[in-house]
Amino acid sequence: MVDGQQTACETPVPKKNSKSKRAISAINLMGDPAILSKADFQSAFIDIGIKSGDLVMVHASMSKFGYIVNGALDILGGLFAVLGDKGTLVVSTNTGQLTDPAGWLNPSPPESHIEKIRKTMRPFDPATTPPRNRGQLVDAFLKFPDVYRSSHPVRSVAARGPLAADLTQTHPLHDPEGEGSPLRKFYDKGGLVLLLGVNFSVCSLMHVAEAIADIPYLYEDNPVAYAVQDNGTAHFVALNKYSEAQGFDRVRNAVKDDITTKALGLSDASTIDGRILVDTAVNILKRDPRAFL
What we know:
- By secondary structure, the chain is an alpha/beta fold.
- The protein is 29% helix and 17% strand.
- It has helices at 19-28, 38-47, 72-83, 111-120, 136-141, 164-168, 182-188, 206-213, 252-255, 274-287; strands at residues 35-36, 55-60, 67-68, 88-92, 147-149, 157-160, 192-196, 224-228, 234-238, 260-264, 267-273.
- It has a 7-stranded mixed sheet with strand order 5-6-4-2-7-11-10, sandwiched between helices.
- A hairpin with a 2-residue loop joins strand 10 and strand 11 (267-273).
- The protein is globular and about 50 Å long.
- The model is unreliable at 1-29 (pLDDT under 50).
């Protein structure tokens, strides 16, 4: 020590009240009645009917469960363990930031900034473009090896497992949940929806019901996406068909007997057959096309 300063050859001695120690103590002493690990999630997934070889799409809010020892890795690890080598896991990797900023809301950018955003926006890259508001679980999932991601500039989907390449191979620009899309294939293959600490309002598969019912509002006031064209250049393109409905939890009463739920930590985990969910939603939309707005 020279004049109170640590020299390069000296080993630092942790202070008893260092910020790092206080941070660790804050985690250990949160008082959460729920401390969850991979084994807890793995057991819960089995209890709610997920089996080896299944096709599963997950939506999660990790903060609802309490303290998860290894964060998203415990949830994903539990899922991979149950699904095994023959199972496929799917997540939504939406990128709403790749739209014309003139249409952004909450917040809207100052008009003086719009042209700069347009000129410097990078086109969608499945390997590098980060999802927007999809949560820690999705961010962690994309870091795993052998993950495939579809090419849609706004509504991409990622998957890992033997069905991943087929699910993500095509993604129609102007009909993102229609025929040939990843989520329509997921529905056709009888995939299982897994909700962790969330309700149906965030369930992307519900957009398939809107596409099948061909609801009129899908063609109204649609976003302008920054899309790569066949010649390799990117342009802003108005999407022909798109949904931003968020009232999907109104389907719950109609499918309540088809949901399997288990309490887990401070929240719960639920599964439902994707075909039952979509078919029920289609019937609702046929009676009331604006049921989920």
